[in-house]
Amino acid sequence: MTMTEHLELVSANKSFGGWHKRYRHRSRALDCEMTFAIYLPPQAEVGRVPLLWWLSGLTCTDENFMQKAGAHRVAAELGVAILCPDTSPRGTDLPGEDDSYDFGSGAGFYVNATREPWKKHYRMYDYVAEELPSVVRQHFPVNGRESISGHSMGGHGALILALRRPGHYRSVSAFAPVVNPSECPWGQKAFSAYLGEDRGLWTQYDACELVARGASSQPLFIDQGDADDFLEEQLCPDRLETVCAEHDHPLTLRRHPGYDHSYFFIATFIEEHLRYHAERLNKR
């Protein structure tokens, strides 16, 4: 995206002295209109600020985290901007795109699809890794220091983006991430359709596989509720814990009794994550 291309302001809300803004733009990577949200803390009005990427989970849009997580107050205190992309292309009218919650709309899985009919639009990895960062750099007062976090499918996205791009993000964290999508029903459904049956393609989007191959030494910080309905079948944090131990990969995995998969869980611990990222974003 160049400065001459159009970025349409959808809405703007004052929040804790800063601004929560939503924008619409034409994505070249996804070949459709996309909406994203950015929280700009008060410090952004007088200088450039670091940026935290937040990737959301299945069925979510750019709105869920910004409205439910309670992150703005601490982000305003710390002087950190937050960028929330949508979770998939929208309005592409592909067959089966809107038939289930865990596939198609709201379920891009942060991969670059290689199979028809998905490969024309479902290129969320390139969108989050390349295109949207270019938009943000050109239009907003960010200083080039970035961290990344996310929830569930978005936690998977945060982990793989950080592991595949050593040194790009100052830090990475996740809430209840899908850590081994190649071996869980959500991931197998999405990967089979988007990537086909070549499991060699799957491994580049699987945190356990990336750790096993030594893709990066990026420390991982994960919170997981032990009352999460998806814990055993879909999330499988024990697998990541095992592979990190086997390969001496730095991992902090905190298990929280009684917490489920909801935004109540995220809201409870988001301040700790924001402070964790801010400490690393502000290091010279």
UniProtKB/TrEMBL annotation:
Pfam families: Esterase (PF00756). GO terms for cellular component: cytosol. Signal peptide: none annotated. Gene3D superfamilies: alpha/beta hydrolase. It is an enzyme of class 3 (hydrolase). SUPFAM superfamilies: alpha/beta-Hydrolases. One of its GO terms (molecular function) is S-formylglutathione hydrolase activity. GO terms for biological process: formaldehyde catabolic process. InterPro entries: AB_hydrolase_fold, Esterase-like, S-formylglutathione_hydrol. Keywords: Hydrolase, Serine esterase. It catalyses: S-formylglutathione + H2O = formate + glutathione + H(+). The active site is at 152 (charge relay system), 228 (charge relay system), 261 (charge relay system). Serine hydrolase involved in the detoxification of formaldehyde. This is S-formylglutathione hydrolase.
